[in-house]
Amino acid sequence: MQHSRLRRAYVPSRFGQLHVRIAEPEAVPVAPPLVCFHQTPSHGGDWDAVLALMSRDRWVIAPDTPGYGQSDAPPEPASLEALAAALSEGLEVLAADEGFALTRYDAMGHHTGSVLAAELARHDSRVRHLVFCSLPAFGEAARQDMLRGIDGMFPPVDGSLARAEQLHAFQSSFADRRLDGAQRQVAMAECLRLGERMDWGYCAVFDYDLIAVLSALPHRALILNSEDDLNAVTGEAAGLLERGIYRELEGCGHGFLAFADEAFAGDLRAFLDGH
């Protein structure tokens, strides 16, 4: 989906340059900005369709998490808290540069992005409403098991095709069926170009107690559960949010955001604006 008002910028953060997609509203904004955080391993381009649709009446921002997309990487794997802080720093600079207010804003995330949105909401009283597209809310024992097994999640980066073959198998199981071959190949290439850094975002998520954070959040939250590898855990975690609204996304898998349409945007806008 093309959008003539979609631009890109770099802003500073504690880890270097942060790459950000910006969708400027078509008219005077009537709603707070919407900030969208992507999954691991991917980039803010996942949100292009959402940016185009939602920016009719608000600013919409989609940063690349440090170490992913075109954002500079930390010198070593960073905590979820540090990644969220870097994103917050970049947003402050961006708002000043672009001239929009961050006195209130909404946060939306997908997989790892949902955790980043929750962490921002935990510390930043300006976060108004939350939208979670899947929630990696694993219990303590499961998280520790995954942390211990992080080195075995994917084949080593050794120049062979083993990692590519595993990524292809994962796509075959959980990718949205509407994605064509070219889209799947581009997504796989994005994962492979990160090398060993591909896993860093998983380390941050597995080391973060999302269950405890969700249980304490007072925000209105929309939980969208797609048919992917987090389907079961998202369904269980939805009940943790005191003011959560839960919806199943039938037939949607990894990559479904590329197919966001007027109906999706209408539902999202209705939730965010309280209609």
Automatic annotation (TrEMBL):
The keyword Hydrolase applies. This is Alpha/beta fold hydrolase. The lineage of its organism: Bacteria, Pseudomonadati, Pseudomonadota, Alphaproteobacteria, Sphingomonadales. One of its GO terms (molecular function) is hydrolase activity. The keyword Transcription does not apply. Coiled coil: none annotated. It comes from the Bacteria. Keywords: Hydrolase. Pfam families: Abhydrolase_6. Residues 43-265 form the AB hydrolase-1 domain. It comes from Novosphingobium decolorationis.
